[in-house]
Amino acid sequence: MKKIGLFYGPLGGSTERVAKKVAAALGNENVELIPAKEAKTSDVEKFENVIFGISTIGKETWESDKPSNDWDVFLPEVEKVDYSNKVIAMFGLGDQISYDLHFVDSLGVLAEKILPKGANIIGRVNPEGYEFRESQAIMDGEFIGLPVNEDFEPELTDERVNNWVAKIKTQFK
What we know:
The structure is a single chain. The protein is α/β, with parallel strands linked by helices. The protein has a single domain (4-169), classed as Rossmann fold (3-Layer(aba) Sandwich). 32% of the residues lie in helices and 20% in strands. The protein has helices at residues 13-26, 41-45, 59-62, 70-78, 105-114, 157-169; strands at residues 4-9, 31-35, 49-55, 87-93, 120-122, 138-139, 142-143, 146-148. Strands 1, 2, 3, 4, 5 and 8 form a six-stranded parallel β-sheet that branches. Strands 6-7 form a two-stranded antiparallel sheet. Helix 1 crosses helix 6. It is globular.
């Protein structure tokens, strides 16, 4: 397996913690952890295997005139990449209790940006076991990536990450 670029944001907190868990499950020597707010198009382009780790934010935040978080800065860079020769996996943090109408929406928003650019997205997850009402991350009946709820289900994170990593590990180049 070739080195994996794992781009995550924001720094600190749950997204970074889960990014480190994913890297450890893949073998830290196989992964380069890259904070989203420090990354450029060229950083993504140098990897054939990419993981994006993102927290849930609203689409209106991304489309505002003033960037307010790490992914606001990184998303325009992500949109410039040709993904036709890449294998992409994604995980998203969200809270399905307080935001049950927008659970891990950021995964769906991100997928909508990269799928037209040839992205081969692996690591879809069955929504069984998650309680929510709506999510932009549901595509063809499955989550487009791994949803994680560190706020209300932290006891499930390790198992969910390990099961997901076992699934995606064999699909990377």
